[in-house]
Write a structure and sequence with these properties.
alpha/beta, Alkaline Phosphatase, subunit A, Arylsulfatase, C-terminal domain, 3 domains, four-stranded antiparallel sheet, about 25% helix, disordered N terminus
Length: about 500
């Protein structure tokens, strides 16, 4: 692809890599490395220092980039959370399976328990596996999730040995932790009842009890008009489970402590940790110790809280002598939401950097995300790669690292990233397909990028075409001027849809 390559800082680092690269790679890959995937929530392309942020400080995120590779064309494959998380866990584009839209908090598990997952593949290879943080892939089988008993389907039926979850999102009920398929601290005499259609009894909402809403959250009541919990309005309605309710300003601390405990417990064996933080998703309720620490208000403070979480993981790996034996991948599940566009005017901070669009939209701001990886001795330090990579590629990459051969029907859209990790100039994908919107919306679309060209194919039949190499901001739609390219990319997209796979 024209203009794609990589840069490294420091002549010494370059000479070490070029002169001793093969032996370093061989030594690093003899034993099975640990794998840690840190997935942030709703971070934009411009939110971290290594991607140009100046009003928000992210030294620990930047450390991963400086010690590894930072991708400028990393994709989430979904412009919303559930589709991206589905793709990461299964290696399959979410649009191939019905029921992978943004899920309510009582949705059943949307992944078949017979389907190979990144956890089951690594478990087969002898890894201890865990997911800590935001799940949002449904829990239980059949109808609405029953949170009052042990849940019969979830991470542990997909190959995860341990799980500690925020079931859906922080702004959706239920606002409880689920550990190994049981609600933490649930009082059986105070059962949980949920509804995403109508209020339950006299559950307080912003419409009836505005005085119970924190002043800093009163502007959110139109979107989050459900039950008030901890002074914050939620999506959906909930009664019961009072002893099990989380405290919003300790979410990051709690999730991080569980992630670190898993690392410490499994320090002597290969482990896989999928650490899915809740930050920087709404509601923004950072721990008070982060208030006022950034130059971008509460959202900026929450970004810096996330950076602290990343630092805790990196410091623990270093402390235990595991840093050199661990692949760390960090990315976001989609771009930043449009409700934060005002930060550019007020703070001089563009959440999605130079990209057009936001979360949900079909433009680059919806799916092109911060994406970086560190693996000392394998990934050259301070590298910048323009090669296209995606979170759906995590499964094939993990399998390659673990020495597991994938069945032909597993991870149908996942590509092994090891070649581009070893040499950031090495292409691994000739195209990527992303999705945006929600299925019921006319603006719902699939996007295919092939080289410099990106086609937006909307469900209503409209097409848009952009030249990303010369127009990163997608300011000029070339669909009418380049009908042959539209036709070629549309055919490529249709072929991918009909074939059922894109992995050779």
């Amino acid at each position: 692809m024209a203009g794609f390559g990589y840069l490294t800082t420091g002549l010494a680092a370059m000479l070490v890599w070029l002169g001793g690269g093969e032996s370093a790679v061989g030594a690093a890959e003899k034993a099975k490395p640990n794998i840690v995937i840190i997935l942030g929530d709703d971070f934009g392309y411009g939110d971290f220092g290594c991607y140009g942020a100046t009003k928000i400080k992210t030294p620990h995120v930047d450390q991963i980039a400086s010690q590894g590779v930072r991708f400028t064309s990393g994709y989430a494959t979904g412009a919303t959370c559930t589709p991206t998380r589905y793709a990461l866990v299964t290696g399959q584009y979410a649009w191939r399976r019905a029921g992978t839209h943004i899920l309510p908090g009582d949705a059943p598990l949307c992944i078949s328990t017979n389907m190979p997952t990144i956890a089951s593949v690594l478990k087969q290879a002898g890894y201890q596996t865990a997911v800590v943080g935001k799940w949002h892939l449904g829990l239980g089988s059949g109808g609405p999730t029953d949170y009052n008993h042990e849940i019969d389907a979830g991470p542990r039926t997909l190959g995860f040995d341990y799980s500690f979850l925020v079931p859906a999102t922080g702004d959706r009920v239920p606002c409880v932790y689920v550990e190994n398929h049981r609600v933490v601290n649930l009082d059986t005499n105070d059962p949980i009842h949920l509804s995403f259609k109508a209020n339950l009894g006299d559950s307080p909402t912003a419409k009836t009890h505005l005085e119970l809403v924190r002043p800093t959250h009163r502007g959110e009541d139109e979107i989050r008009a459900g039950t008030i919990i901890n002074g914050i309005c939620r999506i959906g309605f909930m009664t019961g489970g009072r002893a099990a309710l989380w405290q919003d300003d300790s979410l990051a601390d709690t999730l991080t402590s569980k992630a670190l405990a898993f690392i410490r417990t499994n320090r002597s064996k290969p482990f896989f940790l999928y650490f899915a933080t809740h930050d920087v998703h709404a509601p923004l309720a950072p721990n008070p110790r982060f208030n006022g620490t950034s130059q971008c208000g509460k959202r900026g403070d929450t970004v810096q809280q996330f950076d602290w979480c990343v630092g805790q993981v990196l410091d623990t790996l270093q402390e235990l002598g595991l840093a050199d034996d661990t692949l760390v991948i960090l990315a976001s599940d989609n771009g930043a939401g449009g409700e934060y566009a005002w930060q550019e005017k007020e703070f001089g901070h563009r959440v999605n950097g130079p990209l057009r669009g936001f979360k949900v939209t079909p433009y680059e701001g919806g799916t092109r995300v911060p994406f970086m990886a560190r693996w000392p001795g394998v990934i050259p330090p301070a590298a910048v790669s323009d090669q296209v990579v995606a979170l759906v590629d995590c499964l094939a990459t993990a399998a390659a690292i673990a020495g597991v051969s994938l069945p032909t029907n597993a991870a149908p859209d996942s590509v092994n990233l090891l070649p581009v990790f070893r040499d950031p100039r090495q292409p691994v994908r000739d195209h990527v397909i992303t999705q945006s919107g929600v299925p019921s919306h006319p603006a719902c679309a699939k996007q295919i990028r092939v080289g410099q060209w990106k086609l937006i194919a909307r469900t209503d039949g409209r097409h848009e075409l952009y030249d990303l190499e010369n127009d990163l901001a997608e300011s000029k739609d070339l669909a009418e001027a380049q009908p042959e390219i539209v036709k070629r990319l549309a055919a490529r997209l249709e072929e991918a849809i009909q074939s059922g796979h894109t992995r050779n």
